[in-house]
Amino acid sequence: MTATILDGKLLAQKLSEDLKVEIIRLKSSSGKTVNMVNVMVGDDHGASAYANSQKRIADRVGINYQLLALPVKTTQRQLEGELERLSQDVSVNAIMLHKPVPDGIDFQKAVRHIAVVKDVEGLNAANLGHLFLSGTQILPCTPAAVMEHLRAIPNFSLRGKEAVVVGRSEIVGKPVAMMLLAESATVTVCHSGTSQAGQLEQHIGQAEVLIAAIGQAKFIKGEWIKKGAVVIDVGINSIDDKIVGDVDFESAQTRAAYITPVPGGVGPVTVVCLMRNAVEAFKLQNK
Ligand code: NAP
Fold it and tell me: Fewer CB within 10 Å of terminal CB in the chain, N or C?
């Protein structure tokens, strides 16, 4: 068996075309532009490259994207003040705080100073709470991208499927588990405790849908994977300057029915989901 590749670049292109049409419609009905600000503290090369790719997609879909670069010595208090100022600025619809932040800045604490309706990454407690309550306001982008990949599989339903999520972070593992549950999958969440108990392979072997989000290069081996599974690899790791996922792609593609590549899988779709959130934020503010 050789898995069908779930091409994230192609999916991102399709989703961004749909988004572009929606933005044109919103502009003509409201006379307003969707404005997004990315707040970056310090000068991080990787983060700047990611910001450039965000700007490129924003330009493509018609969102006005601004990078606000703050000096590396910005204090927690100054950063929170800046996020509050942007939250009160009626011309700004969507705000994100770029990761990583320098030592001395508490990311989660800072994010609480972004207005809930402008929290474009869907990461503050109120937006995560909406997800828990099966609401559909502003969804965390990477989990939303995982779900877009699953929706793009022809004639595929999650209802009753054994779904295994490896990783339980606030930004990926936990929210994606809630989204899978909302689609009536039977969800198991694995983490370091599962590995330490020697149970990880066994759980992965049951998975009809496997979501890998652990941040360890090629950690999940092909032979662990159930034949015919759908494998979504969220991981972004670097080996010898090469980007690889959390799944050993070469061995996994001989077992899976569908698999996302890294790079070119979840990543490109995540950026479009971020832009879609900016539009959702705009709509919440212009009801
Ligand atoms: P994280 O906050 O470091 O969380 C990693 C999770 O994996 C934790 O829950 C941890 O368990 C679990 N874990 C680590 N080693 C494990 C092992 N050996 N066995 C079982 N579970 C293990 O990472 P994250 O922010 O969720 O990111 C995960 C990966 O996704 C990273 O490679 C990151 O770069 C990538 N990512 C990609 C995108 C994208 O757009 N494609 C976006 C965000 C993140 P414990 O909780 O028990 O410690």
Answer: C
